[in-house]
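Researcher: Structure for this, please.
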Amino acid sequence: MKKFIVFLFLSCSLTIAAQQKSNFWDNVRFGGAFTLGFGTQTTIGISPSAIYDFQNGFALGTGLTYIYSEINDFTTNVYGGSIISLYQIPTIGIQLSGEYEYSFAKQTNSFGTINTNFPALYIGAAYNSGRFAFGIRYDVLYDENKSVYASAFSPIVRFYF
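Model: Predicted structure, token format:
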């Protein structure tokens, strides 16, 4: 009888845990962004991310970033991680975002190598149409002496599935 009660308890516990896990993954979306640029400068970047959709239009997630850039003999490799927060205004299709990113850069040319790291706090707005969003963001922590980016402004292009 004790074995049956223990078995019944474990079965119910596993069923409840499986249902909770299923509901969690139903609210997770995967996606990110990519960058391609060719010409006098070559830039290739990928930024996969995952977000969890909460109720009322809020989402929170995390992402990774890798960017390779080459101009003549000057190459830059940027690695980073980020925490992403999104708020969707459903009536007008606008997505507001905040993102904290910390990046490490390795810049190499014929004179040697420079390693830097820098934080970024992006505040942005994008038009969202289903799984696709595009807009602009601004880095409030931008420091032209530390960052490898040319400007505090950057485009937003996101895909989530």
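Researcher: Any notable elements?
Model: The beta strands are 28-37, 41-53, 58-71, 74-89, 94-109, 112-129, 132-139, 153-160. The two ends are 48 Å apart (CA to CA).
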